[in-house]
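Incident review: delayed structure delivery

Summary: a single-chain prediction request sat in the queue longer than the usual turnaround. Root cause was a stuck worker, restarted by the on-call engineer. No data loss occurred. The affected request and its eventual output are reproduced below so the record is complete for anyone auditing the incident later.

Affected input:
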Amino acid sequence: MKVLRVIIVAALLAAAAFGSLFLTEYLDTKSEDGEAVVIEVPQGAAGKTVAKLLKENGLIRFEQTFLLRLRGSEYAGKLRTGAFELHKGMCIDDMIEELATGGSVADTVNITIPEGSSIEQMALRMEEYGLFSAEEFLDEADNGSFNYPFLDEIPDDSGIKHRLQGFLFPSTYNVYADATAHDVIDIMLREFEKQYASLGGKSGRSVYETVTLASLVEREAKLDSERATIAGVIENRLADGMRLQIDAAVIYAISDGLYDVDRVLYRDLEVDSPYNVYRNYGLPVGPICSPGLSSLEAAMNPEEHSYMYYHTDEAKGDGSHIFTESFSEHKDTMN
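Output delivered after worker restart:
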């Protein structure tokens, strides 16, 4: 009992000591502006990163205090990136408001990567945005060093055209105008990690295989309502030992990833490529594009059915497909 009392008293004293320091800053609602300090908040920085920057620059004393104030404010999750001029002695609430509404964004560029884009297409977009050359982007994607666990699943020497194909998440990003290829790729990988984790659960496949399957769904499906159905067809054909015979994978191979081919000819189906699922069994050697969240979710949760075939419903002309269970049905619906 005596030991317990000592522990309780020590804990109370520690709490009181911290509380007095905490309240000193937490209850601070006004102060005189002191020395001006300019901080750079990097793209994708979380609240913890910002708090650390503020402390390192002598703008706050306790990182946790800042985070608690931020979470209770209207600006939670809304901090911006860029350069901010703050002042020592500035109250935390004013600091948070400045970080959420101010800053210098003149030297940033908005880049939009559509769902289903290949790395080859992304590289050309980066060049169009004036960030860096397509060659720089591709070289960094293939040879750069990035520390994400899911990248450890990428097989070596398997004929993959670009190592990070499928993992650069399609979205709109605001990046510094002087950002390097490494900076942008790292931001996109971080976003993939975040979005993939948001789906929760596991598909029974590795992340690499899931992304590969999702990339096929992304390129084949035009309607969100059909993504899980198409994923189910792919699963059924794989389970039955059939070739997938998906045109999108062949187009990736024959167009060098640019998808600028209008149609697939019979001779294209014989192209010697590990991405040609007309000649090869199983999934292609790797992803053929960067799938969006809906396609990733479909690949993780394919619809259970007996369909083995599908083709575009030309009569409707809305991008929908006709699904069938047998090859004879498949041929009949194409006539």
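Verification: The chain has three domains: 26-101, 108-199, 207-334.
Action items: add queue-age alerting; document worker restart procedure.
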